[in-house]
Fold:
Amino acid sequence: MNSEGRLKGRPSPPFSVGADHHAEQQTIMLNNKPTWPILVVAVGISLTACKILPTQSGGSGNAFNPDKMVEEIWVAKVVPHLQRKAVPFAEVHALAKTDPASAGAKYGNPSKQANSPWTFAVRVEGKIIAANTASRAATMDIDVDGDGKADARVQIGPAMRGTALRDSLDFIQFNDFTNQIDFAQFGKAFNAYADKTVLSKLPRDALDGRTARVLGAYTLESGQDLPLVTPAEAEIGPKP
Amino acid sequence: MKLTRRMTLAAFAGMLALGTAAPACAADLIAIITPSHDNPFFKAEAVGAEAKSKELGYEALVLVHDDDANKQSELIDTAIGRGAKAIILDNAGADATVAAVQKAKDAGVPSFLIDREINATGVAVAQIVSNNYQGAQLGAQEFVKLMGEKGNFVELVGKESDTNAGIRSKGYHDVIDDYPDLKMVAQQSANWSQTEAYAKMESILQANPDIKGVISGNDTMAMGAYAALVAANRKDVIVVGFDGSNDVRDSITAGGIKATVLQPAFAQAQMAVEQANDFIKNKKSPAKEKQLMDCLLVNGDNAPKLETFALTN
Structure:
């Protein structure tokens, strides 16, 4: 990023035309980055070498826009994938509680990282029996089987935990990202997009007793009070 | 030079082992290169990798680069020169390391990276790294909870050359910045160092006596910061670290530091050696080059189960 700015902002080079090539190499050396791919290109197209430099992306930062990436796939790929894969929460979680491996094989994202816990696409439908809207990481607890006890905790933002939406998608691979910062920011962009387009529009007051319908995902983690579901779509019914 | 002596010793030990164990031919060598063992985290990596190498019938050459990319480059030359069959590497810089690993690859020596990733794929055979970002988010979520979502806090950042310093800081802020009532009054690097963290914390505390929490990029800095807080009679300040060291475990169980995040250092190093073994013997690469290992939150509930960067059941 810096190197490009420096090159672009450079006044006309203090070298003669004949020395252009050499000057270029020197400049590149200063960047302190792997030089060989740039050199190969520079040698290949020596006459126009000055023009191609700005298109070189040395680091991860400049072109990477996770919010835009998520926006582009949300309607076309993310929601359809969740709709296709999602299973009623009670069904998945009953198996996941007793036999995580079987639940993973049956309902989980098969291309997850080897040592990561399973993530499941789920539908949560039931009655809101508690809500915490005082925290910025607001949640509502849903009873899906009518026994009066909460079964799942659904995040309603604006602050949200985890990367369950990203991790439920089998077409997303860590290997396709430059590093874990990019991968993580991509994960966060899903939460931000859900918050912006869906969750921020939900009611916040007097949630108890209303019905909720959620399409989303959750990651099987130990030591949680309740499974934490991140919605991609959510509806809250009228006051009872 | 210390390094040469270490190598000579290793070679000597190797010959001794040959003499006593007496296999038909010399055992293949695996080079294990990490930052300084002064930090128990890196020591655990080296110990884990060495143990697994020996278990699988290799000689291990254990070296430290002290976070110096030039030294790392020399050590890689050493590994190549000694005919190592694989290099297990916790590297000295995401950009600076690419050329060094490429050099090993060109010489026919495959590298298996642990802990820190590099900004290139297709150069190392494997990059097995802790999901530092996920871990930082865990630590930050606990921190936010302990802080009651509000108050002034300080962040101690790690060594700038280490890519994980930036990753953890970003992970922390990814969570904390969602809470406008949490205000960062100081953010300073203490270079992963306990003594430096002590000194930095002392001066930060003088300028900002109204702090409620400190979130630290690693455990050694958390230990330094907490010691400075105790010295200033400010045990009320919430401290959260990262790594899952035994020192911080003991502090947590004694009611000092509140939480840390465990990186599975030992298991990670062993996994790298297993993959190296598979590559050497069966010419088989892992399914994915970049592999993330999740971190775990350690607090008062599970601290007693923590031992040498692993949680027992």
